[in-house]
Amino acid sequence: MEYLEGKLKCGCYAKTTFNPANYVLELCPLHKAALEMYEALQVALDFFTQYDIQQKVISGISLQLNEALAEGK
Questions:
Q1: Mean pLDDT for the chain?
Q2: Can you give the C-alpha Rg of the chain in angstroms?
Q3: Of 16, 20, 42, 64, which sees the most CB atoms within 10 A?
Q4: What are residue 17's phi and psi, to 5 degrees?
Q5: How far apart are CA 38 and CA 44, in angstroms?
Q6: What pTM, to 2 d.p., does this model score?
């Protein structure tokens, strides 16, 4: 089985075949921290996107209730 492998100047190392199951990646501390920051930001983005959607739903329901109350008067 033929492997492709490489190492960057920073210390990151990758070794793989064309099968993704055989992929090995070792990150240097800086790139590992950057990956962790990216993952944390992705979680925050998902949370705030969901929060924004919920706020829009609540605003829509509130608007409908106000319109219904105005029609009832």
A1: 87
A2: 25
A3: 16
A4: -105, -170
A5: 10
A6: 0.59
Taking 3-state DSSP, the helix, strand and coil percentages for the chain, each rounded to the nearest 5, stand at 65, 15, 20
Read off the amino acid at residue 66. N
DSSP H or E segment with residue 4: strand 4-7
Question: Can you give the residue ranges of every domain in the chain?
Answer: 4-72
**pLDDT score for 14:** 84
Please return the burial class of 13, using the count of CB atoms within 10 Å of its CB with bins 0-12, 13-18 and 19+: middle
List, in sequence order, every residue forming a beta bridge with 27; answer none if it has no partner. Answer: none
